[in-house]
């Protein structure tokens, strides 16, 4: 057996190292290390509950709004208030902007540049990939950034700025939208839609959202070869990316984008084609292999975060979250499966969660969310309130705020004592996906996905593709 | 031309990556085009570089050893000095703080991007078990990783582009000035911040200035009135040009309806009171404008409150304009 330590991984948000053991030339075991710890769960202690709104977005520069949404959900429960419909719609808009901007940044800036590497220059598709997706220099990069900046104007208008807004409050949002502002927002969204339809997809968003089978996806690829998404599908087929990076095929998601008729994407746990409601009380954190005090599974509402840098068994600053003892994968693919999307259900039925299906889930979600944003904007009742007043004191002493970041389920477990935060436990999407082993030595989802992979080349490119297919956010992971 | 480009290395440590993500918001033109235009070659960046794993580590080591020239080092995030550096380790077991120090002592110019890298910032808040510090400051005081009297090989102290997050313009304009050797020590304020944005106050150009003038105050975030008296706003003390240069096109904390929390200040994350409330002493808010005699503030605000137009007073506690300004009376100018 030989061992190889890989790192630092870049084009992942934050820091990541991976230790691989090999047997017969393939990975026999992977240990995923989150090497940076800041301690936000401690930074929050003793503060006034609303102060969480200023602290938690700063956990992460790429999931900043998601952190705010999770805190605002928890605070809504603690203060016993519900945002009015306008407040919910504006929150959804701000959250959707972050999520789809993240999806695009991931695809264009973090994931695709690996296929432009010289390692692939013998492939017929490589010349085009290099021209389009080379890190920083590819022809697709500047147009994407320009489109992204126009979309981000939503943040200036609705949220003051991005990242790290304070506009999301337990009673709604601090920004009232005027008719003239809505006109501007709609124009920016039309502009962003044009970019997606011309460059990313090459077809109307509705046509992408209507792709309901692998056959339809293949037909799209052949029909629209110039689109960036189709180009990816082409090289994915050549490289058999659907055979890479399969994990447990247990998927977990929180509810995303609340509305009067329920959330757009439901919470739940998905196993072997069957969805069940999210068993919230069966979520635990296990610190056995973490440089943190504690060992076996422990309920987040009753866990404290105490760093132990010298803990001998530890190999990561990440906790190991489990649901009913399972290591579960979260992200756009989990959301799609829980919504019962036919294309994603068929892809997972045939080859599980893998590099291809994760990327397809992310990009097709972009095509679905932009029309939703158009709907939320049109549905704003401009003369109605956007926020309910927040009572002077909290009405309850514990709450769980859940939401979906771009990269999956995010939860804040908050406990108050005498009006102050006495415990604040966070389980972020990549805490799920990139968790270390637990006290039963069960590997985390990425650790599982790397087993059996060929990592003999100097760059371990297959490992890099698998890692980035999860769209990891390591600053959130350990927070 | 290429040989004249300044070689810039960007590293991240105890932070959130938000200053990089904010930098990506720059739009005229977009980031990589701008960097090329101002004569900067991005040697490596954790979010954007192609090189990963061993090839990245070897590059960092060559730069740290001086085998490759390094003109500019940008650090984003605090330096994690606690537990002998164990709160941020590189894959070879070396602490990140050691590598950062080696690189800072090689680089021609050293730039702290964001309040974390400058002073410790939010990562140093609370009990700071991780020993998070800035490059050359520990909070308000000189110190940090580099000891407090550091000058880079090019002669400048650490340039502290503080802000949580930083505005993309603050970063790119500082880098452009540095690349052109046009930023001098006298262009930095006493906390090492570029004066072009730090000599302004968030108060300047604030949308709410008429409410401030008449002390017509909001009582909660989201109301139109001034947020200073009750809602924790520190715009009159905060050094930044947020209300004279838009964020994401046209925004600022104040146009978003919530208070400035003075995120360019070293200790903003531990204000000693709730972020959404203003402590009061004898009915007046503490933390008045720093260069205004308190007695004058009290006298002026008492006077201005008595002169507040009904329009301003009524709008102050509403979420939107309720009473519009009146038109000049007919026959008068």
TrEMBL record, chain A:
Entry-linked InterPro entries: Ni-dep_hyd_lsu, Ni-dep_hyd_lsu_Ni_BS, NiFe-Hase_large, NiFe/NiFeSe_hydrgnase_LSU
Cofactor list: Fe cation; Ni(2+)
Coiled coil spans: none
Record-listed Fe cation binding positions: 63, 476
Sample GO molecular function, one term: nickel cation binding
Segments crossing the lipid bilayer: none
Compartments it resides in: Cell envelope
Binding residues annotated for Mg(2+), in chain numbering: 41, 426, 479
Domain of life: Bacteria
Keywords of this entry: Iron, Magnesium, Metal-binding, Nickel, Oxidoreductase
Entry keyword annotation includes Oxidoreductase: yes
Pfam families: NiFeSe_Hases
GO cellular component terms attached to this protein's record: cell envelope
Residues holding Ni(2+): 60, 63, 473
UniProt xrefs under SUPFAM superfamilies: HydB/Nqo4-like
Keyword Iron in annotation: yes
Family membership: Belongs to the [NiFe]/[NiFeSe] hydrogenase large subunit family.
Annotated protein name in UniProt: Hydrogenase large subunit
Species the sequence originates in: Aquitalea magnusonii
Organism classification: Bacteria, Pseudomonadati, Pseudomonadota, Betaproteobacteria, Neisseriales
TrEMBL record, chain B:
Enzyme Commission (EC) number: 1.12.99.6
GO molecular function: 3 iron, 4 sulfur cluster binding; 4 iron, 4 sulfur cluster binding; electron transfer activity; ferredoxin hydrogenase activity; hydrogenase (acceptor) activity; metal ion binding
Keyword Signal: yes
Keyword Chloroplast attached: no
Region Disordered, residue ranges: 308-333
Binding positions for [4Fe-4S] cluster 1 per the UniProt entry: 16, 19, 116, 164
Names of required cofactors: [3Fe-4S] cluster; [4Fe-4S] cluster
Chain residues that bind [4Fe-4S] cluster 2: 203, 206, 226, 233
Subunit text: Heterodimer of a large and a small subunit.
Descriptive protein name: hydrogenase (acceptor)
Organism: Aquitalea magnusonii
